[in-house]
């Protein structure tokens, strides 16, 4: 007896497995049960989360470890709508994500209205593309979705899967696959001018961004910066592209006015700015037009054409970062730079601005956690005041050692991201940093952490306030309204969901809790209590 024909859902799932996907996350409904079954048969484990938004962040975290597209699965109507936030985040944070939603068949939709809505219309503005699966075209649609999600700049792609189509047997035809494009480097006058500018620069500065993570040009980048003695800053999500204790590294930039007060004067003093895979979607308005290409030489190497207008450049190169840097460096001699030592002075000033030795408060919590946790620890950061401070103080020695929502800056991402990281890297220490408000948004996912196992650490900054918003409110001399809330026992919440819980109010207590959490058999919630106003002057 011959094997039964594969269903359209099977061909879709097989293409995702071929792309390296081994995990999918979401909440099923009757409309996606065939998809769940097909994923399982293809070798992709489906993980049940408690909310689609959190499921998407778990999926993103797995992508940051295995490089494959994230998979978010949601049923029709409210399930799909629950995922809108994380899909928009994937678009702005350049995360390749396949968003699978169930829908009723076209004929059924003509006379049936319950939960029926146009998913494609909703997802079209927040994805790179939206497809409706057909039976005969299922393999091609799957390949188009994977290719579109992964090509520069990466992002989410939506596939709406009608119930009947998912179950339809399909006779397999010749599979079609887009081949991987070879890295492209510039040539001609543009390249010669770039070589001359680099050779003549005495005060060069590089700004490194997300494109470098996507095109895997880390080794070439490091060799280039070292050869030409070019100090550099990174965006927050590009932290660790070179170890942050590297002598040329000036740390992360983009959201901290305090850090910018030391970094932007260096930008102004530079005689050459190199934007290397720099995607300014992470940056606050203070980085808009911070250099003038009429008076400073600026080389912009990016994956796509500049349509953001956050900055301009004298030379715009749309090409692979590594291939371009190799072409510029070929035959170009390096030399000493910054004879007055301004980058070293800025680095020392940043160290004083973000001290490691405070007795208690958010900076002390971050410093103690970094000191107590071993090299190789993976960290996640939620949005809020603590994220700005953490992104300056948390030392990364590898790319994606700290992940966060830095384009959309959505709250509630850190805890589910940590769950995803622990699933993908079970032997690595994992810690999330959340404000208490962001933690409350996703506290139910502690049950998911318990079900998945492992011992991730969830650290919560507890001050019963939306600290960053309250700080802005005071800065505008407005009365305190809508930013403070009740004080809760987060350690008890952790224990209630089957984990460990500790409340800490000193560095010694925090150190003891972190040591216990690393040896624990399950997850730990650490509630670090701080005073309202503790972020004043620190971010």
Quick synopsis:
The protein is α/β, with parallel strands linked by helices and 539 residues long. 40% of the residues lie in helices and 17% in strands.
Helix/strand layout:
Layout: H1 8-18, E1 23-27, H2 33-42, E2 45-48, H3 52-66, E3 70-74, H4 78-82, H5 84-92, E4 97-103, H6 106-109, H7 119-123, E5 129-132, H8 138-150, E6 156-162, H9 163-167, H10 188-200, E7 204-208, H11 211-215, H12 218-228, E8 232-235, E9 249-253, H13 257-269, E10 272-276, E11 297-302, E12 315-318, H14 321-329, H15 342-353, H16 362-372, E13 378-381, H17 385-393, E14 402-404, H18 414-424, E15 430-435, H19 436-441, H20 446-452, E16 457-462, H21 467-475, H22 490-496, E17 500-504, H23 507-519, E18 524-529
Parallel strand pairs: 1-2, 1-3, 3-4, 4-6, 5-6, 7-8, 7-10, 8-9, 10-11, 11-12, 13-14, 13-15, 15-16, 16-18, 17-18
Helix pairs in contact: 1-2, 1-8, 3-5, 3-18, 12-14, 13-15, 16-17, 16-23, 18-20
């Amino acid at each position: 007896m011959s094997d039964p024909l594969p269903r359209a859902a099977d061909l879709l799932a097989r293409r995702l497995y071929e792309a390296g996907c081994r995990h999918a996350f979401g909440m099923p409904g009757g409309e996606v049960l065939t998809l769940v079954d097909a994923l399982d048969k293809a070798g992709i484990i489906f993980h049940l989360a408690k909310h689609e938004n959190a499921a998407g962040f778990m999926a993103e975290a797995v992508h940051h470890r295995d490089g494959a597209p994230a998979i978010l699965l949601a049923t029709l109507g409210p399930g799909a709508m629950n995922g809108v936030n994380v899909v928009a985040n994937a678009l702005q944070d350049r995360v390749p994500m396949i968003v699978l939603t169930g829908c009723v068949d076209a004929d059924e939709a003509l006379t049936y209205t319950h939960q029926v809505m146009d998913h494609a219309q909703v997802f079209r503005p927040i994805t790179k593309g939206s497809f409706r699966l057909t039976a005969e075209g299922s393999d091609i649609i799957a390949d188009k979705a994977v290719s579109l999600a992964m090509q520069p700049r990466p992002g989410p792609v939506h596939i709406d899967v009608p119930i009947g189509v998912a179950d339809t047997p399909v006779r397999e035809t010749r599979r079609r696959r887009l081949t991987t494009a070879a890295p492209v480097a510039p040539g001609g006058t543009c390249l010669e001018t770039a070589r001359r500018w680099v050779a003549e620069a005495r005060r060069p500065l590089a700004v490194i961004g997300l494109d470098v993570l996507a095109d895997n040009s880390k080794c070439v980048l490091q060799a280039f910066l070292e050869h030409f003695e070019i100090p550099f800053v990174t965006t927050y999500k590009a932290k660790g592209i070179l170890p942050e204790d590297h002598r040329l590294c000036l740390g992360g930039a983009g959201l901290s006015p305090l850090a910018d007060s030391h970094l932007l004067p260096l930008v102004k003093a530079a005689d050459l700015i190199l934007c290397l895979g720099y995607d300014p979607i992470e940056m606050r308005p203070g980085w808009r037009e911070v250099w003038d290409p009429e008076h400073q030489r600026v080389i912009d190497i990016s994956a796509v054409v500049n349509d953001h207008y956050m900055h301009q450049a004298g030379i715009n190169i749309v090409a692979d970062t590594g291939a371009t840097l190799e072409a510029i460096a070929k035959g170009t001699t390096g030399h000493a730079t910054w004879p007055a030592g301004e980058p070293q002075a800025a680095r020392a000033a940043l160290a004083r601005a973000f001290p490691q030795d405070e007795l208690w408060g958010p900076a002390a919590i971050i410093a103690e956690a970094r000191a107590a946790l071993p090299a190789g620890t993976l960290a996640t950061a939620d949005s809020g005041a603590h994220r700005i401070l953490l992104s300056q103080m948390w030392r990364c020695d590898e790319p994606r050692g700290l992940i966060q929502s830095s384009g959309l800056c959505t709250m509630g991402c850190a805890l589910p991201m940590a769950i995803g990281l622990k699933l993908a890297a079970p032997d690595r220490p994992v810690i999330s940093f959340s404000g208490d408000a962001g933690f409350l948004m996703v506290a139910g996912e502690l049950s998911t952490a318990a079900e998945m196992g492992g011992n991730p650490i969830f650290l919560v900054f507890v001050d019963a306030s939306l600290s960053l918003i309250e700080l802005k409110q005071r800065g505008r001399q407005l009365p305190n309204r809508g930013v403070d809330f009740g004080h809760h026992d987060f350690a008890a919440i952790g224990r209630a969901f089957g984990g460990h819980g500790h409340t800490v109010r000193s560095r010694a207590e925090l150190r003891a809790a972190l040591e216990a959490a690393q040896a624990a058999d399950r997850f730990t919630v650490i509630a670090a209590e701080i005073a309202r106003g503790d972020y004043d002057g620190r971010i």
